[in-house]
Amino acid sequence: MQGIQINFLTHAQNVLRQVRRVIVGKNNTLTWVFAAMLAKGHILMEDIPGVGKTTMALAFAKSLGLKTGRVQFTPDILPSDVVGFSILDQNDGKMVYRPGAVFCNIFLADELNRATSRTQSALLEAMEEGQVTVDGISYPLEQPFIVIATQNPTGAAGTQPLPDSQTDRFMLRLSLGYPSLEDEISMVTSRQGADPLKDLSPIMKASDLIAMQELVSETYVSREVTAYAVKLVQATRTNTVVARGASPRATLALISLSKALARLNGRDFVVPADVQSSFVQAVAHRIELHANVQQTAEQVLQTIAHGIVPPKP
Question: Given a cut of 70, is residue 155 above it in pLDDT?
Fold first, then answer.
C-alpha cells in the first residue's frame, strides 16, 4: 500500500505542477478541481468570461492524457448534439447510432447556462449513470468520465440558471476570479504569442486515473468522522436562513471529496479537518437561502461548521 500511495502522490504532484504552469496563482482552486476528479466528481466553474476556466479544463485534460469532448453551448445547441442520435442507414435500412460529444473522458460543457433547459437536462443521465439513452437504447460512456462545466454568473446576458437537479450532480462549484497584479503580469509575459497549452505533455493515462480513483474510494472513514459529516449536512436543513437544505447526495459528495483530500495529503484515512475543508466546497451550491438573507451560502456554511464540534482525531 505504501508504494501505491507514493506513486499516487507523485502522479498528483506532477499533474498539479504542470497545470499550474498554465493557470498562475490559483493553486488552491486547482487542487480542489483535481480532488473532485479523483473522487469521480463533476466540476462546475462559475465566473466571468476570460479568466481561464476553459484553459484550465483543457490543461487538466491534456496533462491527464485523456480524450476530450467539448460543446460551446448556445440556445441553438440540441440535446442530440450532446448525447447523439439515430439515423437511417440508406444501405441496409437500419437505424444507426451516431455518438454525441459526451463520448469522451473529459467533457467540457462551455457556458452551459446559455443552453436551453432541455439541452441542459440531456447531461443528467450521463453525469449520474455514466451512460446515455437514445431511442430506448442505453450506451455506456468511456471511463473515466468527468464533466467540467463552465457558466457565467446568473444574470449575464443570454444565460439562465441551471436546474437544481443538475447543479446537485456537480461535486463542487468553484470560481477562479481575477488574477493578482503579479500573477497577471506573469501570465501576460509568458504568453507573448504562444499557446499556453502547446508545451503540455500527458503525465498520466486513463488507467492511471482510474487506479487513483479506486484508491481514493478505499480511503478509510471512521464512524465518528462519518457522523460528523452527516451532522454538518443535516444542519443545513434546520438553519433558519436556509430555504432549502442539502440532500443526502451532498453527504455522499462531502465524504468522497474528503477522501480525495486525505489522499492528496498523504493519508489513507479521513480526519475531521478533511471534512471541514471540503464542507463549503461540496455543499454551497446545493442549498438555497431565503430571499432576504444578506449572507452568501459560503458564509452560512462556515457559521454552521463553527457551531458543530468535530470529533477528536
Answer: no
Residue 296: its pLDDT value, please? Answer: 94
**Residue 26: its pLDDT value, please?**
87
Q: Give the phi and the psi of residue 81 in degrees, each rounded to 5.
A: -65, -30
Residue 89's DSSP bridge partners are: none
Give CATH 3.40.50.300 domain extents, the chain.
2-196
Q: Are 135 and 86 in contact (CB under 8 A)?
A: yes
Torsion sign (Cα): 109, 112, 114, 115: positive
Which residue type sits at 311? P
**pLDDT value at residue 2:** 47
43 and 148 Cβ atoms separated by less than 8 Å: yes
What fold does the segment set 2-196 form as a domain?
Rossmann fold (3.40.50)
CB of 168 within 8 A of CB of 286?
Answer: yes
- Tell me the pLDDT band of 154, cut-offs 50, 70 and 90: low
> Residue 148 is placed in which grid cell?
467540467
CATH number among 1.10.8.80, 2.40.128.190, 3.30.420.10, 3.40.50.1170, domain 219-306: 1.10.8.80
Distance in angstroms (rounded) separating the CA atoms of residues 41 and 32: 11
Instruction: Pull the grid cell for residue 91.
Output: 444501405
pLDDT in tens, 67-111: 999 999 999 999 999 999 999 888 887 889 999 999 999 999 988
Considering the chain, tell me which residue range(s) the CATH 1.10.8.80 domain(s) occupy: 219-306
What is the spatial distance between Cα 236 and Cα 248, in angstroms, rounded to a whole number? 11
